[in-house]
Structures are given as structure tokens and as C-alpha cells.
Q: What sequence folds into this?
């Protein structure tokens, strides 16, 4: 498998953007250089890709079944499933080409299926309990992580043909998901839609221009896009336009619109919050610093509740948080890159993309979290031939590293999602600084405490943290003990 010059340029550009977005050591500066995406420059070179470097083996036409969780809104099955041919959709065509390359290298046929996450979990249980092997790899979301402690997944670190230290596995995720060296699920290039699930913000450029408000791009570049800067900017944005004494997303204007199951986490992790950290011997421990979490919560509360943003808490009205923004009734919307196309594709006003704000200028990076709906790779403990499954999983990841990730930037920026070069620059910041939290990714007892407090419009979270602390500690300890007990 050969890389193209375009792929090399895109990858180098993304790396450069990542380094400068992070500010490097001792710097908060962010570059405004936009990676080149001129497809006319694409020419093949003789450099071997990551997939070429993997062991060659003929599996004699083996059928390799993969089942992916898919929420209809976001097409996460695109991590593996395709239309069965190239159809002009960038991501479909790249995944299709990756799948074909793996099939040809190992003489296999990849079969794919997708289903709702709850049904995928049921399938995993049925397959493993019954010793069935219809699916050798699962790409399931965070809700399936609980199955690891029940023994449904194989330890990826114990499979010799898998090497989670390779660059096609996200090292932040590997570290967060490892307990005493055991990793039962992970992510990286094998899950391109998860890589596009980083939380960010969009802003209505027309509303900004009409109100003589400068676009925040320069603030981001200067390392000054902080929660205080955003609070100052949005302080008086929510207005009762029709003067009827009440606020509605159809008739009035909000500082921001957002969804209760996403924005509390996006802001919390963007502001540097964490619920767990690694202790000794690769064992996670609870990291509930009440003062720190309370300070972060206070800012989030002010932004979402105090400033009367449009905060949707009713699942039946989920789409209205996007419609409020796309119809021009909100200055900001908290959103993930993956959901922009579906929800804002018909928006008439131009919009820009921004990373989540930092807690303060001392915070090194602009950080993004991935919603628990993001897919993770999991190998069932009932795998008939773990070494074969491991090698093919590694091949799918390495193949994505070669053929999908270098164009990930292009996938996002060459769609109607991104309407200016500045936003393209912001996208690179978001995708380069995704964080993972063991406690959140395992959906342990208390992970939703911010969401619950904000939904209840509680001004403080300190007492709730203390009341939940014991249960949270026991939940994490139970997870660790389960890992310890498994061979």
C-alpha cells in the first residue's frame, strides 16, 4: 500500500497544527497556517505505509465479521461499513478503499453490520455466552464498556498481533483505558467518526457582524479564548426580542443553545476538568477535587443557566437546540464536528467553528472530549482465533492511519461544514487535543453529576459531589477489582 503525496502533506500539516495549537513547551501560541488540500497535487510515492509493515499472512478467504454501533444521527457505522462501492462520499470511499486493502493483503472478506447501541450490547452477550463467532470485532460506544468487567472482551494487550503502542492507536485513550496493564477496549485511527466527535462551538457570523462583535479567532490564536472571555462576550446576548416577557427559541435570541447530555461534559473537560487520574501500578483513582470542580461548575452554570441560554433537557426536543442556532436565534451552539453536517447543512447564515474555551490563559491546550456515543474497538473474549482477530484489527487500524486519517482534515474542511479558512484552523485544534477520562468512559456511578445539577438548575455542585463521593469511589474500585480478577 502506497501513500500519496497529498496524504503526506496533510498528515504533516495536521502534526504541525497540533504542535502549534498546543503551543509547544512553554507557549500558548496557535498557528493560523492552513494545511494544503489541493487534490491536484496528489501523486504516488514509493514509501511504504503502516499497513505494509504488518506481517503478511494468507487466511484463505476467511470471513471477518464486524458489528458497529450506529446512532442514526451520526452514521458512526462509517468506521467500517460502506455502501459497498465508491459513491463520491469522501469518508465512504476512504473506508471502502481501506477495507479492500486489508481484504487483499490477508485474503479475507470483511462483512459488516450495524445496529443501535443497546442491541449491539445484547448481541455481544448472546455471541459470547453462546460461543458464537459471527462477529470477531465490535465497534461499540461507551455504553458497552460495562461488559468488559463482566468478561465479555479479550485483553488487547495480551494478543501478540496487536500493538497498542503504535501511532494508529490513540495513546491518550490507551493510557486512560488501561487498568494494571489490561486494555479491553480502545480507539484510534480505526474509529474515524470518533476522531471527529470532539466537542467544540459554532458561532453565527451574521449575528456577530450585525452586532459589531469581533470573531473570536484571534483570541484563540493568542491563547486568550478562556471561559472568562466567553462569559464576558455572552453576558447580555440573551434577549426577549418580541417583548412578551418569556423566552422562546422561535421568537427570541439566546447567547447559546446546547443539549444537556453533551454541553456540560464539553465545557467541563474543555476547562481542564477530570474525574479520575492514574495512581500507582496503572490503577485509576477518583479525582474529585471539590474546590476545582466547583469553580469549573460555577462558570458553566453562569454560562448556561445564569445567562439564560437555550439549554435543552427534554430528549424529545433534542433537535431544537440545533434549530434554534441554525434559524439565527442563538449566537453560539455547542456541538461536535461529526454532528455539524446533519444539523447545520441548511443553515443560511455563515457560521464559524471554535474550540471549547480554556479555564484560563495558564491552561496549556484547548481541550475537547468525545461523547460516550463515540465508538471503541472491542474483541470478544470468545474469539475463535485471537491472534488472527488481533492482526486483522491491527490491519484495519494501520490501514486507516495510512488511508483515512491523513484525509480526515479534508473530510471535515472540504464539506459544507466549514465555510472559512479560520474555521479549518480551529478544526485542527479540536481534533488534535481530545482527552479521555477513565471514570467518564466507563460511565461509572456519578459520571453524570454535572448534567444532573445543571438540569436541576442547581447553583452549586459541592454538596452533590460529597453525597456521591462514596458511591463513585466504590464504583471505580469495583471496576478495578473486576479487571484484577480476570486473566
A:
Amino acid at each position: 500500500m502506497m501513500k500519496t503525496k497529498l496524504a503526506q502533506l496533510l498528515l504533516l500539516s495536521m502534526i504541525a497544527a497540533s504542535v502549534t495549537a498546543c503551543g509547544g513547551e512553554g507557549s500558548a501560541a496557535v498557528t493560523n497556517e492552513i494545511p494544503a488540500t489541493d487534490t491536484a497535487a496528489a501523486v504516488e510515492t514509493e514509501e511504504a505505509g503502516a499497513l505494509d509493515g504488518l506481517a503478511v499472512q494468507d487466511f484463505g478467504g476467511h470471513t471477518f465479521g464486524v458489528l458497529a454501533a450506529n446512532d442514526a444521527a451520526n452514521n458512526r457505522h462509517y468506521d467500517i461499513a460502506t455502501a459497498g462501492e465508491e459513491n463520491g462520499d469522501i469518508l465512504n470511499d476512504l473506508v471502502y478503499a481501506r477495507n479492500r486493502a486489508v481484504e487483499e493483503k490477508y485474503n479475507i472478506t470483511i462483512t459488516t453490520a450495524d445496529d443501535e447501541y443497546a442491541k449491539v450490547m445484547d448481541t455481544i452477550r448472546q455471541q459470547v455466552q453462546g460461543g458464537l463467532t459471527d462477529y470477531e470485532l465490535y465497534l461499540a460506544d461507551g455504553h458497552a464498556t460495562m461488559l468488559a468487567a463482566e468478561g465479555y472482551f479479550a485483553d488487547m494487550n495480551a494478543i501478540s498481533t496487536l500493538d497498542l503502542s503504535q501511532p494508529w492507536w490513540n495513546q491518550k485513550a490507551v493510557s486512560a483505558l488501561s487498568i494494571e496493564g489490561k486494555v479491553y477496549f480502545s480507539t484510534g485511527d480505526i474509529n474515524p467518526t470518533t476522531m471527529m466527535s470532539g466537542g467544540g462551538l459554532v458561532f453565527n457570523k451574521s449575528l456577530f457582524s450585525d452586532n459589531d462583535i469581533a470573531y473570536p479567532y484571534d483570541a484563540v490564536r493568542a491563547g486568550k479564548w478562556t471561559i472568562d472571555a466567553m462569559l464576558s462576550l455572552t453576558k447580555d446576548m440573551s434577549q426577549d426580542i418580541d417583548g412578551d416577557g418569556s423566552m422562546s427559541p422561535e421568537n427570541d435570541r439566546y447567547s447559546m443553545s446546547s443539549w444537556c447530555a453533551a454541553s456540560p461534559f464539553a465545557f467541563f473537560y474543555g476547562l481542564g476538568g477530570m474525574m479520575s487520574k492514574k495512581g500507582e501500578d496503572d490503577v485509576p483513582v477518583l479525582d474529585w477535587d471539590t474546590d476545582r470542580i466547583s469553580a469549573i461548575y460555577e462558570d458553566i452554570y453562569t454560562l448556561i443557566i445564569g445567562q439564560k441560554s437555550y439549554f435543552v433537557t427534554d430528549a424529545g426536543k433534542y433537535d431544537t437546540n440545533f434549530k434554534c442556532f441554525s434559524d439565527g436565534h442563538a449566537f453560539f451552539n455547542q456541538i461536535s464536528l461529526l454532528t455539524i453536517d446533519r444539523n447545520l447543512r441548511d443553515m443560511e447564515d455563515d457560521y464559524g467553528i471554535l474550540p471549547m474555551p480554556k479555564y484560563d490563559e495558564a491552561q496549556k491546550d484547548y481541550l475537547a472530549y468525545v461523547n460516550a456515543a463515540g465508538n471503541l474497538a472491542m474483541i470478544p473474549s470468545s474469539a475463535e482465533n485471537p491472534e488472527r482477530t488481533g492482526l486483522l484489527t491491527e490491519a484495519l487500524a494501520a490501514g486507516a492511519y495510512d488511508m483515512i486519517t491523513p484525509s480526515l482534515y479534508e473530510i471535515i474542511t472540504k464539506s459544507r461544514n466549514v465555510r472559512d479558512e479560520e474555521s479549518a484552523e480551529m478544526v485542527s485544534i479540536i481534533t488534535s487535543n481530545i482527552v479521555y477520562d477513565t471514570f467518564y468512559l466507563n460511565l461509572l456511578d456519578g459520571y453524570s453529576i454535572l448534567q444532573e445539577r445543571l438540569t436541576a438548575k442547581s447553583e452549586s455542585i459541592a454538596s452533590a459531589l460529597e453525597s456521591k463521593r462514596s458511591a463513585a469511589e466504590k464504583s471505580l474500585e469495583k471496576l478495578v477489582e473486576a479487571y484484577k480478577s480476570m486473566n
